[in-house]
Amino acid sequence: MFEKVLIANRGEIAIRIIRTLKEMGIGAVAVYSEADRDARHVREADEAYLLGPAVPAESYLNIEKILAVAAESGTEAIHPGYGFLAENAPFARAIGETDITWIGPPAKAIDAMGSKTRAREIMQKAGVPIVPGATEPSETVEDAAKLAADIGFPIACKAAGGGGGKGFRVALTPDDLADAFEGAAREGEKFFGDDTVYLERYLEDPRHVEVQVLADGHGSVIHLGERDCSIQRRHQKLIEEAPAPHVDEEMRERIGKIATDAAEAVDYRGAGTVEGMQVGEDYFFLEMNTRVQVEHCVTEMVTGIDIVREQIRIAAGEPLSISQDEMEMRGHAIECRINAEAAHKKFAPAPGKVGDYLEPSGPGVRVDSGLEAGGEVTPLYDPMVAKLITWDVDREHATRRMIRALGEYKIEGLTTLIPFHETILATEQWAKGETCRDLLEDKDWIKNLPAGDPAAAPEGEDEETTERQYKVEVGGRLYPVKVIGAGLGGNGAAAPTGKRPPKRERKAGGAAASGNDVVAPLQGSIFKVEVAEGDEVEEGALLVVIEAMKMENEITAHKAGKVTSLVAEVGASINAGDPIATIE
Q1: pTM for the whole structure
Q2: Which CATH number fits domain 133-201: 3.40.50.150, 3.10.290.10, 3.30.1490.20, 3.40.50.720?
Q3: Helices 116-125/249-265 angle, 10° precision
């Protein structure tokens, strides 16, 4: 077994992996960007090394730097978590050229399943049912239009290397196709370095059901049952549960075989997830995620299996600790993603400073979080900051427990999805096990969601002399230091003591417009400008696109009129409340 593992990630997934490493007696090495110097995962690791600037391309996506840190720290293996480099075949190959072990599937399996078109072709040949559509990409909009006429509308335009809702656009009619195709290509290039797009039939109200698989190097491939991830917004998951409410034992066995057949078709090894669409009794292969999933927690809660531990064991050459016959699902688990987003503002990202912080607890409650009091959620990274998971004997009881736990969760200073989760879990649609798409696509329902109370914590008290533990960065590595007295912050002021942090002035996001002025409802950068001064616009017309926390946020005209002033420029940073345009 390994003695030291580097986690090439940040936030809650890094902490999740660190916990299992500690239980296994393995040293944990963290990496961090300049923006994450004070992050919780840095402190909880045994060692921590600076990668570089806050921008992911210069830190968490910097393969050369991560490998250099791995060599410097004496790391024996690298766990990528999810996101960033988790499904990056060149990263897996680069690790394979060293004496360090990659805790993940073979690079060839990542290649095969990383390209959605290649994966569909492989699955079709293996006899796995796929969503009707193409197995080859469309080179141009004109090619896409010809193919779409054969497939039939509505059409899903999907980036071949996409995932997590990125690079996924829907064309309901032929008139929508060009925008959907170009949007999918743009996001594919931006987030995955690949603008290849393919088409498939868009299933309007399917259930999103996925199967967790594990495969070792000794010929064993098993599944751990299914999860339902149908509650989504912008094709990004919000709530997951296991088992799926509309899957019976016969279907569980059938889709489990589909998943293990898919894994065997690419000689898979490690933990992976086969995602599919359930339409009545039919089940179609959608894609395979060659990594641990965000929602792996609900499977762990109903099976009792530590999926991260199995990943590490498999990478170390050990066999699976469980057989298919031994796998059993007990009770019901639900996971709510706690995103720093304002649901009532079309799920706009809402970065900010955390005041007081209190996690829920009690029987059957689990929190995977990267948050803590005094921390800060920046617009640079994913908006998901925590996951709340509950377990109970059945779905109804697990729901009641989740509502209770959500009510206990206190995150001052930050707008999150907690009020959204409390609202949707109390609906008749959720109780019936519906997809809730009617609610999530209802603009009025979204607009009237409760905002919650993210009020910042009150002023702190005077500093007291005390003993504190600090970590000092020297040469890109953190070292523990004990200081007795009033510790100093970076500007010479007394450092915080664990009391409530002082209030911090922040511009209110507010509405996107007031009177004639259009202002930014969130912090981010201007990705696209669709109008110019002097243009006449209709109400609802797209003005600019603000990119924040890996999401594109469209800012539209609040009324018809003439654009008499435009201050937004592509590439410029923008804060909540900053002016964008004036419409008269």
Answers
A1: 0.78
A2: 3.30.1490.20
A3: 110
